[in-house]
């Protein structure tokens, strides 16, 4: 015989048969939510969600105020560094029996007919940063200082300053200038870096990376000459950074 179960009214009140006793525990531990709710309001307004902080994307530093020699300054001065402006650091073509310190590039006779400018800028960015890391390797620093110094040099504003130095010193050949013009047309999506530095600075930095990638595939000796002219060196005791002439 099926036992009679208690029923609930529409208001949530427990209906009990007059001849049946319900334990007190059952009345206090009902699983039905009897809490009174507010009536539904279709016009209810909700508090606005907090807005995310807006990033400051305005250029923080103009290229004209960036000094290449200050960017590449290291803690240990060269003891015999009395070289005049334009004197290059001596390039050691052999080290531990190896002719070059860079990884060997693939054999490509005409890179511009095989790769687009974005591909050369891609590899050029890596080679450029490798020069920066080698430059600050001596004297030894902690990891935070390594990262801070290298990051300051590989920023597009710093790369633009490097490019301006090469152009102002008339150090590039007509073919290399043509590669620069080709590299300025590198297409890329809108990035945070481009918004921060501006399209013009970003494009000029990309053109320098394209030139570095192009020379890495075609003429490593010329690439080493350009990077040494900018001030990238491998030692700390016998190599100095060429100073820039005061514009004033």
TrEMBL record:
Which GO terms fall under biological process for this protein? RNA processing
User: Which InterPro entries did the record assign?
Assistant: Mini3_fam, RNase_III_dom, RNase_III_sf
Q: Which UniProt keywords apply?
A: Endonuclease, Hydrolase, Nuclease
Keyword Disulfide bond assigned to the entry: answer is no
What Gene Ontology molecular function terms does this protein carry? ribonuclease III activity
Q: Nuclease: is it a keyword of this entry?
A: yes
Q: Start and end of every RNase III domain? A: 119-219
One Pfam family, please name it: Ribonuclease_3
Q: Where is this region: Disordered?
A: 26-60
Domain of life of the organism encoding this protein: Eukaryota
Record-linked PANTHER family? MINI-RIBONUCLEASE 3
The entry's protein name is RNase III domain-containing protein
Source organism (scientific name):
Coffea canephora (Robusta coffee)
